[in-house]
Amino acid sequence: MSARDDQQPFESCRLLIFRSAAEEILLRTEQSGFALPGIAIPANERVALNVNRTVRRELGLAVISLYEVSFTSPEQEGSFYHAAVSLRPGDEIPLGTCWAHVDSLKPDSFSRSADFLAIERFQSGLSARDEAGRPEPFRNPNWFLHVTAWVSKSLRERGLRLSGPFEQFNASPTFSLIRFETGGRPVWFKAVGEPNIREFRLTLALSRICPEYLPKMLAEHAEWNAWLAEEAAGVSLSAAEFRHWESAASSLARLQIVALPHAHKLSAAGARDFRPAQLLSRVVPFCEFIAESARRSESVEARELGNGNCLELGAAIEDALSQLDRPELPSTLGHMDLNPENIFCSTGASIFLDWAEGFTGCPFFAFEYLLQHFRRRFEAHPAFAMQLRDRYLRPWQLLLAKRDLESFLTLSPLAALFAYASTLFTSLMREDSVTVRQETYLLGLARKMYRMTAQGKGVRP
Fold it and tell me: In the chain, which stretches have pLDDT less than 70?
């Protein structure tokens, strides 16, 4: 094991592995009673992917992950419970384990009471429904059978078939992400729930408006908010060279120009509203929250936002947004999550994934988000940023005057960061709960914006 692997943090996971429509569960037999099997998986990584891999490696079982089973118990400290279903119920099970009928289990059957509580919690949640009263599509323990049947049917209609191997990346009662191997290109099944249902509608709209910039859409399933798409060709921008970043910047601009006539349709499909006039209404509540948080904070850095500096920040943001609220600035498609993993480059257009954070409004915000990732990757080559900027601007120069372009790009850094920060703030306020960590993060974003204004970035040109 390398030094890096040795330092990798892990977290404990106790497993509810079911078979036979969740009527039987895999248990370890111990002197003091039954116990759920446990594993350790890497922290801060995809849970479903690591649960499936670890169970296969350590227990010799092929499973599909269901979802985390949440409840409160003193015995649960330091670990969490996760449910899964055996894909081959007849497989040999590890020594010292057995299949037990769930209905036959009692609290005193277990060496840890929390294990029994987890099973009870799972059973009671099987009938849970969403806010509209509909069954959650992936809460049913047999959901994978239904999904693979639908995927197989959709592929057959296109002359393809599943070839067997698959990898599951996300699992919850309403979200799912699975990569299937086929006789041709691999395909991805993706389903989304609240608060990301907008991604389903927006992805379908974009696949019709600008299909060359998205993975090829193969099928959709509205009841699950799900779709099936061909795997994007090309190289991920996370492993790409500078020339690929230039291609991605140019593709982003061309995509936005293609989407210009469809901004209203994309807004109706669920794109976030980043028009400057709309963002202006968020400035006062955001700055009031930041001022109050800074006043309560014991952090020296947070005090930078005191003594009227928060008012100064709010005025600078309002000025930037007001300057951007001009008829010359087109409102079109943008993407707030342009991390390199969401972009694939090949000959011709780049492909953009994961549109949960798609928006309509100032197009140059999207370039700012891309630029932040670029700077982290090429921090040793600051001059490259100007070359990337030039590649992004070339398509826009056919539509906008050079003076307007320069003005918009000068104002965009501050306004784009505020759009991101205020979206996070609005989401947290809707949940009516802000953790200390989240509040600290928002304060950090506000300090960054204040320093930008002090340096003259993103203010009136």
Answer: 1-6, 75-77, 457-461
CATH code assigned to 235-454: 3.90.1200.10
CA distance 431 to 445: 20
Instruction: Report d(CA 204, CA 270) in Å as an integer.
Output: 11
Label residue 297 exposed, middle or buried (CB < 10 Å: 0-12, 13-18, 19+): middle
pLDDT of residue 356: 96
Q: Which of 235, 233, 143, 234 is nearest to 189 (CA)?
A: 143
Tell me the domain boundaries of the chain: 3-125, 143-230, 235-454
Task: Evaluate whether 322 touches 411 at the Cβ level (below 8 Å).
Answer: no
Residue at token pair 């039954």: 34
Instruction: Write down the pTM of the prediction.
Output: 0.92
DSSP annotation string for 84-116: EEESSTTSPPPTTEEEEEGGG--GGGBSSHHHH
The domain 143-230 is placed in CATH, from the list 3.30.1490, 3.30.200, 1.10.10, 3.80.10, at 3.30.200
Peptide bond into 195 cis (omega under 30): yes
Cα separation, 50 vs 60, whole angstroms: 14
Token duo for residue 374: 């670029």
Residue-level pLDDT at 296: 86
Q: Under CATH, what is the fold of the domain 3-125?
A: Nucleoside Triphosphate Pyrophosphohydrolase (3.90.79)
Residue 3: the pLDDT is 41
